[in-house]
Write a structure and sequence with these properties.
Bound molecules: 9-methylguanine
CATH class: Alpha Beta
Radius of gyration: 18 Å
CATH topology: TIM Barrel
Strand content: 15-25%
CATH architecture: Alpha-Beta Barrel
CATH superfamily: Dihydropteroate synthase-like
Number of helices: 9
Distance between the termini: 15 Å
Amino acid sequence: MLQVELQGKPQELKPQVMAILNVTPDSFSDGGKHNSCLQAVTKAMEMIEEGADIIDIGGESTRPGSAEVSAEEELQRVIPVIEQLSEKTSVPISIDTKKTIVMREAVSAGAKMVNDVSALSDKGSISFLSSCNADICLMHMQGIPQTMQDSPQYKDVAADVKQYLQKRIEICLQSGISAKRIIIDPGFGFGKTVEDNYRLFSNLQQFKDLGCRLLVGVSRKSMIGSVINRPVEERVYGSCALAALAVVKGASIIRAHDIKATRDAVDLAYMVLTN
Ligand code: 9MG
């Protein structure tokens, strides 16, 4: 967790809940682009009411097996939502994208953070981030979403992921992006077996050595379903259990679907941590 000095004593900063707002065609049912934009903004405002600190807007699915969409399509999905939402709230908006062009347009529409599951692999993304003030989440992924779960391979999953993130941080620092703006994420479920995910989770505290805020995204993921044997719509309690544990292990940001429940879990874990 991020530390600040208060009256000479280091104080933990309260962990944040990042709300997931997918704006893919299957997210908001009935017709028309305008209608779904309105529904997305309404959903975001509800999640803010429930305690979200950041809204993470994504127009391309990163689920295992999902297909890529064009930049034009992604822009059409996310930009109107960012424009309208940033008129209504000062809660920071994050853009979940791998594409430099989408990052650029989203930041000029009002996004304050870039969440990139490819850790700035697209051409021009590092130089764009070094030219603006947006925060950046660098996530680890082995492979690409279409095939990443086919046969993940690691020598030592925690050490390998940590080494990768350290290299990505170094590249950012060399490009003038300060550590304060960088958030790291081990990427649960992105090219990892269930065992890899739990080994990573057990070693989460080691990632704090890298000197950046740590984001954890496990909400409703199959690593939870495979242990408690429940379908995706029944994974709220499991997601909250891991959210609380992640806070105790040093996470500063929890990415989640179920905001009310996650807020409670995070606040209680934080209470334990600070007493
Ligand atoms: C987009 N997305 C889906 N899962 C994610 C996770 O675990 N972390 C981050 N940063 N983004 C994610």
